[in-house]
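Q: Convert this sequence to structure tokens.
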Amino acid sequence: MQQIILLPEYIKQLLHCLDTRGYSGYLVGGCVRDALLGITPEDYDIAAPVPPEVLLGCFPGYKVLQTGVRYGTITVIADGHPVEITSFRREGPYTDGRHPDEVAYTDNLAEDLARRDFTVNAMAYRPDTGLFDPFGGQKDLQRKVLSCVGDAEKRFSEDALRILRAMRFCSTLGFSADAALMQAADMCASLLQKTSAERIFVELVKFICGKYAGSVMHQFAKPLCTVIPELAPAVDFDQKNPHHIYTVYGHIAATVDACPQSKVLRLTMLLHDIAKPYVMTEDENGIRHFRGHQERSAGMARKILTRLACDRKTIEKVCRLILYHDIRPAADRVSVHRYLLQVGYEDALLLVHVRRADLSAQAPAYHFQFSLIDQTEEIIRSLQKEGAPVCVQDLAVNGRDLISLGVPPGPQIGEMLTCLLQSVADGTVENARQALLQKAKQLAGEIIHKEK
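A:
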């Protein structure tokens, strides 16, 4: 594996600032890992055998922020990039499950790396001396194995969020967790209950958006069900239905992998069938049914995402997609247009992804429906290109036009606009001003006749 890491000029300059003062700075952590994997690092972290009060004076001409100086970390703004620079340190116990109670500074790089979470994050690099890898991180990168530095249970006891970080690295990098890490993750999973919802949700989103999230869900079922306990009944739940070949949890995991790696879509698939074990009924033939699971799943998703401090916009979008995920309009223009009146263009196109992912994790005998989904998407895009109306605001007439026809202001205006929109969707009237006004006159006449 290549050990020459190309560094941006601003990082070289920061290392030079330390070198000129007699201190050897090292690139550490994720930037070294990513560079060795051929991934351009999103950011760079530097560690140096310098106490923080001395670090503050090592970068003249740069803006220096005392972001974590209590724990030996400062942030230097270099060429517009925030770069964290940390003193080599040893750490005491983590009583609060997140921060060490005390920090002792050291000039020993190996001691500093020994406090880190995973071997692949416990490597250091300098351009002149190359890679420093005391815990076999490079070998683990080559094997695609994630293992903890030292005792895995101790690492997770220090900060249980590291369990979700392990899930994230396996999900995004395609790594497998070693046996010691998995055993410790299961043993320490309950500690996640003491971790803040905000921290959990950030890592959960990174994990669920990884390329291999679905397969990692199986390996880390216990920690995931600790974070989302409502998922636990799904793990071994046999659907006993001809449409399905997986347990509910297996189906969910497969759909997660099958949809695009976006926050909204992945959260939708994670929660779209979560209510199935709660609404199941079984008929006289032993076939299980899940009527109303869409509405119940949407309601459960709202509670779960709110508990996890998800932003309101994401909650609304995810719950809406879950609510409509099982609606399958016929693949003809009128049916699809009527469907669009319910969901709109944006959500309809997202639901195409949801339906494809859902179908991909069902019995192969039903995969012929992929062609129907393709046809539906084609019609949606055609209607969108035409500018076909999907809400009353898209109509070529408005409430003032109806009032000018003699329709009294009030609820009847909205009702009539809705009728006009439905008529356009049904193909019985064109979305053109004169055609709509003519139709409105007819509707107004009918209303007057009824009132008489």
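The first strand starts at residue 26 and ends at 28.
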